[in-house]
Design goal:
By secondary structure, this protein is of the alpha/beta class. The protein has helices at about 5-10, 20-30, 30-35, 55-60, 90-100, 125-140, 155-165, 175-185, 210-220, 225-235, 255-260, 315-325, and strands spanning about 40-45, 65, 105, 115, 125, 145-150, 170, 190, 195-200, 240-250, 270, 270-280, 285, 290-295, 305-310.
Length: about 325
């Protein structure tokens, strides 16, 4: 049916959801407090749907919001995909340094994911941000509730769960697995390695805008810069270093790669005993020191993804090397 006919018959209705959304955010975080802070932030909506939101929500106070890449452009120039990952945020990092800003925030094309750059222009990994948001909700806000994570996210969450006596649930990759557990357990937060985080009291989905506001609130409440927040997190849970490598492979090699890994399960990796292995979603090896290695195929691209989180950059590099060796790539 043509749209004009559907409108005439009352089958289609246009609704402006922005005011509804803004009121909801105001219930979840103290926007007035954020507006009156003297932070200077740089926002990169990556030519997508997040353009203008931080400026509108935080305008009219002392906070300074500088926005780049704010025009809508479905070609997303300069990036293969509008993902808020380090490879796409060189301009944001440079702008933060040039403007001497306190933090840089990037949202992806549909604004359900967040990427964060610290005051020095250094990218915070999605795993670090996830752990920091959990620490914010548990310690700064004093809330309690379950944490839901995918297998590709940080083991720091288990340590936070122990410290604050809250359960941690682990799922396969994808928010479609996280949301049902969040609803069933009334979980505090759920998140994944892509930089998407969902929160209790909000929709059971990812929201990059709210995640960014929560991060800003954590900075204000603690008086710490992003790099200082990371140091504070590590003082609680110990240092963790994460890296992911994506390897293209011929589709015909998929079964051979699976067989190579399955037939060569290691008893130790990089000198540390393998405490547990799991094949629910790829090949997941958890080591005795809580570091881990995961090898899994992308569900959307012909890519083999190798993930590792170690207690030092050297160990993380060794884990990735072992993963490549096991897969034969």
């Amino acid at each position: 049916m043509p749209l004009d006919k559907a409108l005439e018959q009352g089958l289609v209705e246009y609704v402006d959801l922005a005011p509804v959304y803004s009121r909801q955010l105001a219930r979840l975080v103290d926007l007035d407090s954020l507006r009156q802070s003297e932070l200077k932030i740089v926002v990169d909506p990556m030519y997508g749907a997040g353009a203008g939101y931080f400026k509108t929500l935080l305008g009219g106070g002392a906070i300074k919001v500088v926005e780049i890449n704010s025009e809508r452009n479905p070609l997303f120039p300069g990036m293969i995909q509008p993902e808020p990952i380090e490879a796409n945020l060189a301009k944001l990092s440079a702008t933060v340094r040039r403007q001497r800003a306190d933090v840089g925030l990037a949202t992806d094309g549909d604004a359900d994911r967040i990427g964060i750059v610290d005051e020095k222009g250094a990218f915070l990994t999605q795993l670090q941000v996830f752990a920091l948001l959990c620490l914010y909700l548990l310690e700064i806000r004093g809330e309690r509730g379950a944490i839901v994570k995918t297998i590709t996210t940080t083991s720091m969450l288990y340590r936070l769960g122990e410290i604050f006596k809250v359960p941690v649930y682990e799922t396969s990759v994808g928010f479609k697995y996280i949301a049902p557990i969040m609803l069933a357990e009334n979980a505090l937060i759920g998140g994944e390695e892509s930089g998407g985080y969902g929160f209790r009291g909000h929709m059971p989905e990812r929201d990059g805008i709210l995640a960014g506001l929560y991060f800003l609130d954590m900075m204000i409440k603690t008086g710490k810069t992003p790099s200082e927040l990371l140091d504070y997190l590590y003082s609680k849970v110990g240092p963790h270093y994460y890296q992911r490598v994506d390897v293209k492979f011929p589709e015909g090699e998929r079964q051979a790669i699976i067989s190579r890994i399955r037939d060569n399960f290691p008893e130790s990796i990089a000198g540390v005993k393998v405490a547990k292995s799991d094949t629910t979603d790829g090949f997941h090896f958890i080591l005795a020191d809580t570091s881990w290695l995961l090898i899994r195929f992308s569900g959307t691209e012909p890519l083999l993804r190798i993930y590792a989180e170690g207690n030092s950059p050297t160990q993380t590099g060794e884990l990735l090397g072992v993963g490549k060796g096991l897969a034969g790539v």
